[in-house]
C-alpha cells in the first residue's frame, strides 16, 4: 500500500466515523459473508480434514477423541467468542492423553482468528 493509498483510506475512515459508522464493525460484517466457518466445530473439522492426510492412525484417533470431547462445550460457539479468559475448565480427551494440551491451545485459542491456518 502506497502512502497516498494509506492517506486516502485514513480519510475514508474519518468520514465514516463522522457519519456514525464503525469502520471496524463494517469490516467484520463483510468478513462474515464470505462463507468461512465461524463455529468451533466447523473450523475444527476443516482443520482435522486438512491435516489428517499422511498421519498415523494413532494421531487420527487421538485428535478425533480430543475434538469429540471438546464439541459439547465449544462446538456451537463462534470462534471469535472463544478466548483463554472465557475458558472455564479443562477439556480432556480421555485418560493418557496429556499431549492434547498443546493441540488444545492451537485449536481453541488461535492467535489469528481470521487466518485460521486452514
Structural account:
With 118 residues, the protein is mainly alpha-helical. It folds into 2 domains: 3-32; 40-108, no CATH class. Helix content is 55%, strand content 0%. The protein has helices at residues 3-18, 23-32, 40-51, 57-74, 100-108. Helix 3 (40-51) packs antiparallel against helix 4 and helix 4 (57-74) packs across helix 5. The longest helix has 18 residues, at 57-74. It is elongated and about 55 Å long.
Q: Could you name the ranges where pLDDT drops below 50 across 5 or more consecutive residues?
A: 90-97
Structural class: mainly alpha
C-alpha termini separation: 25 Å
Q: Treating each run of at least 4 consecutive H or I residues as one helix, how many helices? A: 5
Q: Whole-number average pLDDT?
A: 75
Envelope shape:
elongated
SSE order: HHHHH
Q: Output the radius of gyration.
A: 19 Å
As an assembly, this protein is single chain
What count of domains describes the coordinates? Answer: 2
How much helical structure, as a percent, in the residues?
A: 55-70%
Topology at a glance:
Blueprint: H1 3-18, H2 23-32, H3 40-51, H4 57-74, H5 100-108
Amino acid at each position: 500500500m502506497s502512502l497516498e493509498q494509506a492517506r486516502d483510506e485514513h480519510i475514508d475512515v474519518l468520514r465514516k466515523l463522522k457519519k456514525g459508522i464503525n469502520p471496524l464493525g463494517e469490516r467484520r460484517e463483510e468478513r462474515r459473508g464470505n462463507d468461512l466457518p465461524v463455529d468451533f466445530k466447523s473450523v475444527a473439522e476443516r482443520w482435522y480434514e486438512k491435516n489428517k492426510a499422511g498421519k498415523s492412525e494413532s494421531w487420527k484417533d487421538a485428535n478425533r477423541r480430543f475434538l469429540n470431547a471438546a464439541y459439547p462445550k465449544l462446538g456451537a460457539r463462534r470462534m471469535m467468542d472463544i478466548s483463554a479468559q472465557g475458558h472455564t475448565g479443562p477439556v480432556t480427551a480421555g485418560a493418557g492423553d496429556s499431549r492434547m494440551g498443546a493441540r488444545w491451545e492451537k485449536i481453541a485459542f488461535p492467535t489469528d482468528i481470521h487466518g485460521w491456518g486452514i
